[in-house]
Amino acid sequence: MPLDVHCLAGYWNESHLGRIGLKEAPADRAGFEDALTALTGKGVANPFWMPNKWPGHLMFMSLLWQFGGELYSEDGASARWGSDAGVEALEWMVAQIDKNFSPDQVAQDAQYNAFKNNKVSFTWDGIWQINDLRNNARNLRWGMNALPNIGGTAAAWSASHNFVLTSQGAKDKNKVTAAKFFIDYMSERSTEWAGAGMIPARNSVREDRAVAGLPQVALAEDVNAFRFLPALPGIGDVQSKALELAVQQAVLKKAGPARALRDGVATANKLLAENKKKYAK
Amino acid sequence: MRAARLATRSYRWWTPYAFLSPYLLLFTAFMVIPIGWGLWISLHDWDINFAVKPFVGLDNYTELLDGGSVDGGRFWIAMKATGVFTALSLPFLLVVPLLVALLMNGKFRGRNFYRAVYFAPYVLGVAVVGLLWRFLLDGNIGMVNHYLGALGLPDDVQWTTGTPAAWWGLVGVTVWWTLGFNAVIYLAGLQDIPAELYEAAKVDGAGPWQRFRHVTVPGLRPVALFVVNSTLLASANMFGQSYLITTGAPADETKTAIFLIAETGLRRFDMGTASAMSFLLALTLMVTSAVVFRVFRDRQETS
Q1: Is the minimum CB–CB distance between B54 and chain A shorter than 8 Å?
Q2: What residues pair up with A13 in beta bridges, in sequence order?
Q3: CB-CB: which of A113, A117, A248 is closest to B249?
Q4: How far is CA A277 from CA A60, A274, A280, B185, in A?
Q5: DSSP code of B249?
Q6: Pairwise CB contact (< 8 Å): A241 & B70
Q7: What is the ipTM metric for this complex?
Q8: Cβ A53–B247 below 8 Å, yes or no?
Q9: Chain B positions in Cβ-Cβ contact with residue A117 (cut-off 8 Å)
Q10: Is B47 on the interface with A (CB under 8 A)?
Q11: Domains in chain A, ordered, with CATH?
Q12: Any B CB within 8 A of A259 CB
């Protein structure tokens, strides 16, 4: 039972955007790229920094989905993120560096710290960062909306905190009833939880006046844009050993996007096969 | 006389063991059992989350020794990273503290203050050091590059995301952080060298360099073995610096063996593979350490 949904969102620097006559981040590719070009002419040397680590892989996945790709085959036997859509997605990311919208080799968290310090116009990060920006970057005027649609289909990496009822626990009827009551109780009170920057999963809570006005809840207008990792056992392993590494290699220009993805997919497929065996036991 | 004989007679075969027992207990509880347990784990497909932990014999080891497998490839990249870091940091960690110790061994005003200053970073935890230098060294927003630029030097060196700069960043931080420890050991060694030897050398007409070469260096030999060996092992066990400063960037090139072992065992919960990695690393370090002992023994014999 999901308690919330949290996704990758686009943040912008209001004063930077003001210089080029924009009130919020453009929602489409042409608008976004034009804005970047315009910003470089208005004193922002590098308006959109491309991270090699977190949330680089989340950006890649979002773009992959936007370009019409998918992560894994439905049976979980093979990785599909090396497809043409994947290459297009990663090439777009690297292009931001080539066009000088991003400096080279952005280190972990540097893009976010630079954003907080008024050096970056756009950054993509989790919606939960709003509290950090509110409390720790008081001089920054910023806004947040859904990721721009670069690839053609609106999509953003999302995840969710879930309550799980195990089959072992389900053998006892009283425990099931108690668990259901607890989950319902928590879910009803996710009004509080929304304060952590999350989007409550329960529809009635999202409509609550106290919650509906929160900036992140506006992103839930297009629920179809929320895309999740498939529920495959051991998928986290495949992500960190293969997909994240491929993104790092491409963004740091250790390898071209196509080659990084090809190598990554080969590793991923080996791991998926190992996982099939491991989790079948 | 009589009392002495009584004491000898009350000697029992277990007396030495009784004296040893406090340490033996600790040694067994914290060394022997964990090592044996680790070896046992390394022979299994041991995932903490699973009730079933099948015995796989030497499979974990063969997988690691096969550079073509996923974990094998990652492991040897990490071993190489460990080797590179050790090779780059060892000379500096041996020489810079020696220079500091020589300096601190002189007589001048405020000597204790300077000794404290050089030792101070060592008392900081790796978390503090790591976080501090991650911000200072950042290639795009860090102060190091900012000031290099202000001095007219290149200001786009990627200290945390590009090799070889990242290696020099890690080595520099480690030297700054830990030089105090070796310096103190050297200093103790220097103070053990009798002043008469220096006087005798002076009388024989030896200059400062000759005194250093023929009195100080041989005089430091007893502590040198300890310093070399402990520094070698500390460098080979480097984890916190790359975990916090480079986070393994670029693309796992600075992910050291301990980093990978911790990640495999404690984040991915694959304890079997992680234990096998630990044993391969330990074996490598034991061999290296043995070579160091050998070199020092040979030198002692030839001198």
Answers
A1: yes
A2: A142
A3: A248
A4: 28, 5, 5, 53
A5: -
A6: yes
A7: 0.85
A8: yes
A9: 141
A10: yes
A11: 8-158+230-280 (3.40.190.10), 169-225 (no CATH)
A12: no
SS3 content of chain B, % helix, strand, coil (to 5): 75, 0, 25
Residue by residue, pLDDT tens for chain B (303 residues) are 455 555 556 678 888 889 999 999 999 999 999 999 999 999 999 998 888 899 999 999 999 999 889 999 999 999 999 999 999 999 999 999 999 999 999 888 888 898 899 999 999 999 999 999 999 999 999 999 999 999 999 988 999 999 899 999 999 999 999 999 999 999 999 999 999 999 999 999 888 899 999 999 999 988 999 999 999 999 999 999 999 999 998 989 999 999 999 999 999 899 999 999 999 999 999 999 999 989 888 776 665
Task: Report all structural domains of chain B as residue ranges with CATH numbers, in order of start.
Answer: 71-302 (1.10.3720.10)
Ramachandran angles phi, psi of A8, nearest 5°: -80, 135
Tokens describing residue B160: 């945390």
Chain-chain contact of B47 with A278 (C-beta, under 8 angstroms): yes
Nearest chain A Cα to B138, which residue? A107
CA distance linking residue B133 with residue B207, whole number of Å: 41
Taking an 8 Å cut-off on Cβ atoms, the answer to whether A241 and B45 are in contact is: no
Secondary structure of residue A38 in the 3-state scheme: helix
B158/A104 touch (CB, cutoff 8 Å), yes or no: yes
| Best residue in A104, A105, A279 for a mutation probing chain B (most B CBs within 10 Å) | A105
